[in-house]
Amino acid sequence: MKTLFLFLAALGLAQPLAGAPPIELPAGALAFLEVNDLAGQVTRVRQSLLSKLITQSPEYRQALEAPQARQLLAGMQFAENLLGTNLVKVSDAMLGGQMVLALYPREGRKEPDAVLALRVGDAAVWQQLRGRLQPLLVLAGAKLKRTAEPGGVDRLQLEDKVFGLLRPDGLLVASRKDLLDSAEVLFAGKQAPALSASSAFAKFGEQMGRRHFMRLGVDLEAMQKRFGARLGVPAQFDNGGASLLFQALAELALKSPYLGLTLDLDDRGFDFAAGIAGGPKQVAPEFRWYFSDPASRGAPPLPEVPGLIGGLSWYVDFAGWYRQHEKLLTERAQPEFDKFESGIKTLLPGREFAEDVLPALGRSVTLVAAHQQFKHLGGGLPAVKLPGFALVFDLAKPAEGGDLFALLFQTIATLTNFGAAETGKEPWVMVAEEFEGTTLSRMRHLRAPKGAALPIVYNFMPCGAQVGSHFIFASAPDLCKGLMTALKKPAPKSANRNLLIQLRPGQLATLARNNGDILKAQFVQKGQDTATAQRGIDTLLQLLQAVESLEHYSTVGEDRFQFRLEGRWK
Amino acid sequence: MTAPQGMLAPVDWRVRPWTAADARHLLWRAQFGASGAEIDRALKAGAAASVERLLHPTPSREFEETSTLLRRCAMDTGSALDLKAWWLHRMHHSSHPLVEKLTLFWHNHFATSITKVRSAAVMAAQNDLCRREALGSFPALLHGMSKDAAMVAWLDGNANRRRHANENFARELLELFALGEGHYTEKDIKEAARAFTGWHVRDDKFWFNRGQHDEGIKTLFGKSGNLDGGDVVNLCLAQPACPRFLAKKLLTAFVLPRPSEAAVAALAERVRELDFTMSRVMSELFSSELFFSREARGSLIKSPVDLVLGALRALDGEPNLQAVQRLLALLGQDVFAPPTVKGWEGGRLWVTSASLLQRANFAAALVGSNQCGTIRFLKSPRLRLDASSAQLTKDLAELLLPQPLDPEQENQLAQHHAATKGTPEDRLRSLLHVMMALPEFQQM
User: Fold this and answer.
1) Which of B113-122, B144-153, B161-170, B368-377 has the least mean pLDDT?
2) What span, in angstroms and rounded, lies between the C-alpha atoms of A335 and B151?
């Protein structure tokens, strides 16, 4: 947190500038990073409500008092004295244009060569800066060779390690002379083999766009030539969870010419994307269980239930993955599957996981969290108010699947009663309730709890219901009912998402406010006094309220796979 | 009522001066460590006033408010970790630290673990009982414990039924809570267990299950009748072994690791004379010649709680309670979760090769990072960072160590400080680390 505040404090000292024309660097790079109009982006972020809340918070002011921040501010003051101008102007001049850093392989050496190109935002200030920096260049002594060329160009060489070019409109630095020469040609706008024209980066630009605030591209084919065809990705994973989440993606990435990341920022939010080229047909059949069919609806949107805080919706052909675990995972990981199947047999007596359960499973699962009203407690309220949670399973065979899940629900309910007996908690009995023409199975405490500070366990009241081809497991009846209503409505139009995670920070703020004393106690436990803890909570609530939404999703196309993370703030 | 005599007679402070070393000795034993300011205040107040202040301090509203917040958090979440944090906060911040020290003493005496009881509320209620009677009446505490829900759950009271008596509580009452081994027979245990039949728990509260109580005649220590649990407790308290058992435990915890038979007998006599009233017993003990004797100084090995909270208090620290409870568990004193019904044996067993390393690591973490909490000592106006290495070493040793260092050791530490590179604060941190890793710092 402190580091974030220091970073923002540093950014807070910068000011905006206009955009800049694109820079080209020589072809043959392993990877590049491109940043456009950094100063302008910083200004737009600074003007947002979120940024104002941060800079007005006591924690931010406290961070400015920290020794590191004082050192930073003193360093900035020193730099301003040296340059004879304020750093706001410097940042406008230097960061208002475009900056590209690219890494190139060199035969016989592990470390790559680098080229940095910067096109400034304000040529006049840049000229002034160059004048101020002249004495420093002299201080470098004989190691630094400097040659003045016509047109206001200075050519620099520091031994045989660094080669530079100071131009009226920017600068170029390289660790190899031939790279600098090629970069110089392109920088001047002349034709030469360019990085953006290479097949990998051309594909990157075509699929993910060429104009972003920040782009990072990696030429995976070049990396494979240099570091081996599999780039360290094992042919078999030794962890089931990792396999389920990443193995198919890693296989697709190995077929992709590029890995690209982009970031865009404005005063209302950010958009981060990561992508590779290739679709489900590019990977071997044993990895296709991960990807939704580009033509189908993929993971469903989160059901709109009252008080929705957030959730996750995931397309995954779990059965397809499970059936191939012996092929996908190492021998060492296999006993875990045997244990899992034995465990499932306890919950589903007489049923075999592979034979009876897998065929019933559909291809998506949804996890939802929402505020609960606790009406089912008949007036009692838990002291700690947790949201209700629910899992919605898509069923391939609704009739058989519904019975299996109902059996699972009943077994879990019985087991929890055994646990209640051990801990002296109130046992519950199973009851059926009719809701909008559908049966909802739920628990009811044998004796209704009383009081407004009930133990945390009263946040959980298991419920189960089947709506069409969906089975709902919920920890709270009102959430279960909300889902039953939502799932009966026609499914929204397809967005073809493989994975969707949404968070509504405003609702999270409500949750935090409802449990303010618990949060405050946690801060006190970490060594804060109550007043400081309260201030921390207030800041946290303000920040949460200033963020409108956070959403992460992945999309599958015939020729591309992309992750996106989007945040919107007020 | 007679006055204490012999080794328990009060020190005559007119004959010898009350020094900072005496004040530090008293405070480290009666609370969890002592800051420089607390030692100064006790030095100015004198011995009698300092003991009086320990017994009757001024309450702090701010502390009570924070404590209430942390307790409510523990009750609301039902989490053992939150419960531990609540008590550790009390130990460190309470305006009545002696009560917290004695609460820990009774927690160890009536060792009950949340790992079996599985209820933060019930454990907190037992802790309240220990606190309420910490300086109160031992008989009231013993009676209270026999009906305490956590104790009943811990020692399987609900399984103690009329036709099938469970002896767990009766056995521990005689062996660990009141008399000690050798002062009862197996027959006594069986008879006592019958008296406690039907002493059950329902809805987290004591419940006399009349239908399961054995109404027959029982005989214990020569007395026969339809005895119930309360009668058994009273009979135990009347045994000569009871004050002796308690006296030995008090001496071992607060004065000497191996008290002489004479010391035990003398204190047992005072315990009986004072009718087991703990405030008066502790007042006499903390004023006695024995307590301030040379052999008592630095004779106890610090428990993990004394070590960790003591160091934080000495260095004006604010503990990170979550980190401290993890550390205490690592060092072998997980509060609210003693290892067995016998509690923590303590003494030399606190220090093993593994725990010694952990103790040194704790010292490094405390002075080198904010991992266990923040320390204000280095910013204290009392501290003169520009003082000579020798002076700083002497000052720190007086604050932290129970006995003066020998000159050669002191000289080595001063040389270490002088040779350390970095800012004055860095050098002081290094000196503190070395001093807190010394074997002498493990004692109090």
Assistant:
1) B368-377
2) 42
Ranges of chain A whose pLDDT falls below 50: 1-20
A–B CB contacts, 8 A cutoff, strictly below: 65
Model confidence over A23-51: pLDDT tens digits? 999 999 999 999 998 888 878 777 777 77
Helix (H) or strand (E) holding A113: strand A109-119
* Cβ neighbours of A245 (radius 10 Å): 16
CB B322 to CB A520 under 8 A? no
Residues of A in contact with B114 (CB under 8 A): none
- Tallying the residues shown for chain A, one arrives at 570
CB atoms within 10 A of CB B339: 14
pLDDT in tens, B376-406: 888 887 788 788 999 999 999 999 999 999 9
DSSP code of A27?
Answer: S
Beta bridge partners of B373: B319
* d(C-alpha B314, C-alpha A443), whole Å: 54
pLDDT at B358 over 60: yes
CB-CB under 8 Å, B66 with A524: yes
**Using the beta-carbon criterion (under 8 Å), do A525 and B89 form an inter-chain contact?**
yes
Q: Does A517 touch chain B (CB under 8 A)?
A: yes
Question: Which helix (H) or strand (E) covers residue A240, if one does?
Answer: helix A240-242
- Domain assignments of chain B as residue spans, ordered by start: 304-442
CB atoms within 10 A of CB A48: 18
Contact A383 B76 (CB under 8 A): yes
SS3 label, residue B312:
helix
Length of chain B, in residues: 444
Contact B119 A423 (CB under 8 A): yes
Closest chain A C-alpha to B263 CA, distance in angstroms: 41
The residue of chain A nearest to residue B68, with distances taken between CA atoms, is: A521
The answer to whether residues B276 and B246 touch, using CB atoms and an 8 Å cutoff, is: yes
Q: Is A242 exposed, middle or buried (0-12, 13-18, 19+ CB in 10 A)?
A: middle
Rg (CA), chain A: 29
pLDDT in the model for residue A166: 93
Residue A109: phi and psi, rounded to 5, are: -135, 140
Rounded CA-CA distance A504/A548 in Å is 7
Q: Tell me the pTM.
A: 0.83
Pairing of strands A438-445, A463-467: antiparallel
pLDDT of amino acid A19: 45
List, as ranges, residues 436-475 from A with C-beta within 8 Å of B: 453, 455-457
Whether residues B76 and A456 touch (CB distance < 8 A) is answered with: yes
